[in-house]
Design a protein that fits this description.
CATH architecture of the largest domain: Orthogonal Bundle
Distance between the termini: 43 Å
Largest sheet: 3 strands, antiparallel
Radius of gyration: 20 Å
Oligomer: single chain
Strand content: 5-15%
Helix content: 55-70%
CATH class of the largest domain: Mainly Alpha
Number of domains: 2
Number of strands: 3
Strand order of the largest sheet: 1-3-2
CATH topology of the largest domain: Arc Repressor Mutant, subunit A
Number of helices: 8
Structural class: mainly alpha
Order of helices and strands: HHHEHHEEHHH
CATH superfamily of the largest domain: Winged helix-like DNA-binding domain superfamily/Winged helix DNA-binding domain
C-alpha cells in the first residue's frame, strides 16, 4: 500500500482573506482528507454493492435492511427519522424488500396505524453477510493503520454533528442490547 504524504505546504493555511485563511476565519480545504474519505466510503459500501447486485438492490436497500435488522419491529416513522428520508423515498425500497421476502411489515398492536418492520430469516442472512464484509474491511483498516478500534470509534463519533451524537449513542446502545439478548436465547 502506498504511503500518503502531504507536504506541509499543501496543508498550510492561505495567507489572505480571499483564500479562506485565518483572517477569513477558515482554512484551505483539506483535500487529502476529503478525497480519502470519499475513496474509503466508496470501497466500504462497494463490498456490499457486489452482493446486492444479485437481487437488483442498491445502497438504499442496504441501509433499510441494516436498520430493520438491528432494530426488530422498528416503526416506519423511526426508520424515516434515522435515514433522514421521505416516505416517498422509502416506499419503493421497502416494497421491494417486502415483496422479495427480506422484510415483514405488520400493524402495531397498540396503534394499528403504525407499521412495524422486522427482517425475515432471508433478510437476517443477507444483513449478516453485508455486515461481515464491512466488519472485515474495518478489521483490515484498523490492523493496517496501527491504530485501535477505540480510536476509530472516537474518530467516527467526532464526525457526527454534535447535536445528533446523543441520539446516535442511544440508537446504537439500544441495538447492541437487543443483539445481546438475542444471543442469550
Amino acid at each position: 500500500m502506498a504511503d500518503i504524504n502531504v507536504s506541509p505546504a499543501a496543508r498550510r493555511q492561505s495567507s489572505g482573506p480571499a483564500g479562506g485563511g485565518p483572517e477569513a476565519g477558515g482554512r484551505e480545504p483539506a483535500y487529502d482528507l476529503i478525497e480519502l474519505m470519499f475513496f474509503a466510503y466508496r470501497d466500504f459500501v462497494g463490498d456490499p454493492d457486489h452482493v446486492l447486485e444479485r437481487f437488483n438492490f442498491g445502497r438504499a436497500h442496504h441501509r433499510v435492511l441494516h436498520f430493520v435488522f438491528r432494530h426488530p419491529e422498528i416503526r416506519v416513522a423511526d426508520l424515516l427519522d434515522i435515514l433522514k428520508i421521505t416516505k416517498q423515498s422509502l416506499a419503493r425500497v421497502l416494497r421491494e424488500l417486502v415483496e422479495q421476502g427480506f422484510i415483514l411489515q405488520k400493524e402495531g398492536q397498540v396503534d394499528r396505524r403504525q407499521r412495524l418492520l422486522t427482517v425475515t430469516d432471508k433478510g437476517r442472512a443477507l444483513a449478516l453477510e453485508l455486515s461481515r464484509l464491512q466488519t472485515e474491511r474495518f478489521a483490515r483498516a484498523i490492523a493496517g493503520s496501527g491504530t485501535s478500534r477505540d480510536a476509530a470509534v472516537r474518530f467516527l463519533f467526532a464526525m457526527i454533528d454534535p447535536e445528533a451524537r446523543e441520539d446516535v449513542t442511544r440508537l446504537i446502545t439500544k441495538a447492541d442490547r437487543v443483539a445481546a439478548r438475542a444471543r442469550e436465547r
